[in-house]
Amino acid sequence: MDMNVSKKKLGIKERYAHMTRGLGWEPTYQPAEAVFPYDKYEGIKIHDWDKWVDPFRLTMDAYWKYQGEKDRKLYAVIEAFAQNNGHLNITDARYLSAIKLFWQGVSPLENYVVQGFARAGRHFRGEASRIACQMQAVDELRHYQTQTHSISNYNKYYNGFHSQRHMWDRVWYLSVPKSFGEDALSAGPFEFLIAISFSFEYVLTNLLFVPFMSGAAYNGDMSTVTFGFSAQSDESRHMTLGIEAIKFLLEQDPANVPIVQGWIDKWFWRGSKVLALVGMMMDYMLPKRVMSWKEAWEIYAEENGGALFRDLARYGIRPPKGWADACEAKNHISHQIWLLFYEYGGATAFHTWSPTNEELDWLSAKYPDSFDKYYRPRLEFLRDKHARGGRVYQTTLPALCTTCQIPLCFTEPGDPTKISHRETVHEGEKYVFCSGHCQEIFSNEPEKFVQSWLPVNQIYQGNCFNPDVDPTAPDFDPLKAVLEYFHYNLGRDNGDFEGSEDQQNFAKWRGQAGHN
Amino acid sequence: MSVNALGPYEFAPRDAVKNFHGNILVNFCWDRHVLVAAPFAVALPPGMTLRQAITTFIAPSIAFHPDAAKIDWNTVTWEKDHLPWQPDIDKSLAENKVGHKDYLVFITPGLNGLNSIGL
Question: Do the Cβ atoms of A466 and A442 come closer than 8 Å?
Fold first, then answer.
């Protein structure tokens, strides 16, 4: 007997249609404008939300399945790492500074991105875009959780991992990624998408994740490698979302082009500044180095990014305004940032140190145009001074850029001994910047950046002491009081690696693994 | 340009001078001596002389630089917010018209940093 049997399984396209647009409806109790109040005011014009297509055509049910499988594998490895004292397999305890910096400054940013995509996933009018954003929100939450679980094992043994949430809102150098994240979160949903999905995830994320995860692999950190792998398929999905998002916006209306261009200019520059921290990690913190920051920049920014902007030229998009200056800086920023942190090493919740001769030679080879002339003499001078008992610990606070919040340690393009600075007076108040690009970002939205919570300025305003502190006491030490407010364990979290508790414990425990 | 917002978007500047308990914030940069990794921001009473500010805060902070001991503060030349500036260092910051968040650069001719190339 013949029967009409309906197909058991839907094709991927049909399923995608049902599980995205098929879940939407036209509001009837309220006008659409009241339900979606935030997707017009930025000036972006969308004529047909149905043109948004996720190239992966991923639906929520498939998403849960994939992520569930990845989590099972990941947690098996994390468990084995913990049980087998995997932390003793890393190359050298100096490597921990890289993980501390990641944990203090990057993981909380993942948590911010959860919030941003959850919001975008509520406020875009198109169902497919909402669902893509919701999945990315869940991804980022998973990344924050898996990083927490992987890295918590290090917190059992080493210093500087203990007060992440407390430090994030207070510590001077963490205000750099924090203010970056809050700038994106407080923008409209379209700017958020260009800031995070395109400028960060698409143009710059390889500069963060590839060096970090390869660095972990090179340095025996199985735990970090595994969460990196587990995140990698998510990251490629996010990159695809980034390129989809920008093409969608540019194809919807020509009036969107200049608005998007302005956001690309802003967020490329902001992202390149935040990534200076990664450059320092690659060139100085990894005992076994993968590639230099300059090489990573050349591959991932200049080659890949260059091709991308050639592709986007047909929409009328040009490379970001700060492109040439950011490329010129590849010879300098990792060294300038490391020297800054070294000199302020009494106030960091990770260790700094003087590179070995072998490491200096590696840097010379990787930076033939800049290292021997501008950076080796400084590093050697500081190392000699330390060897003679005079480790430099700067205690006078640095001037900060109002926009990126990084101390003014960067130099003028093409002039590596001239500290770059700019000033703007807005409504009678003066603001200081590290560069013309940061100054321009301020000038485009001064009302936003007059609110910058600059840690140095906050310290001088008296807002960074514990409540029971008496600044009038004769033995009052303001710097110590600030570090206590940050919840540092003084003498254990901060200071030079040489002689640190981390160095001593790692050597002792590793020694015990091999003999009695 | 201004912030794109749905409603009124006005906030007081967070670093207004009234928040600094009678002090002003002053930035100091030693020109072409990048061994000192970043310029300093120091909160100072406007009645303090420039010389006192230097002696109390700046000189100790740059003392690790081999050129620091050779500085003759009487012959130092200055820039304020990118423009040439001639203070009387024995007069107060207020008398020298140093304002809140001004950016001062001191130039030490003849002292050229490590290897004489501005480090």
Answer: no
How many residues does the structure list for chain A? Answer: 516
Closest residue in chain A to residue B101, using alpha carbons only: A430
CATH tag for B17-116 (out of 2.40.110.10, 3.90.1150.10, 3.10.20.560, 3.40.640.10): 3.10.20.560
Nearest to A409 among B32, B37, B82 (CB): B37
DSSP codes of every residue in B59-106: HHHHTTSTTGGG--TTT-EEEETTEEE---TTSBTTTTTPPTTEEEEE
- Tokens 């998973």 correspond to A142
- Flag whether residue B112 sits within 8 Å of chain A, measured between CB atoms: no
- For A468-514, the DSSP string reads T--TTSTT--HHHHHHHHTT--TTTTSSBSTT-HHHHHHHHHHHHHH
Calpha distance A145→A160 (Å, rounded): 19
Radius of gyration of chain B (CA): 17
Question: What CATH superfamily classification does A49-507 receive?
Answer: Ribonucleotide Reductase, subunit A (1.10.620.20)
**SS3 labels along A441-456:** HHHHCHHHHCCCCCHH
Give the residue extent of every domain in chain B: 17-116
- pLDDT tens-digit profile of A12-60? 888 888 888 888 889 999 999 999 999 999 999 999 998 988 777 888 8
CA-CA distance, A165 to A486, in Å (whole number)? 11
Q: What is the pTM of this model?
A: 0.95
Complex prediction ipTM = 0.98
Residue B91 touches chain A, beta carbons under 8 Å: no
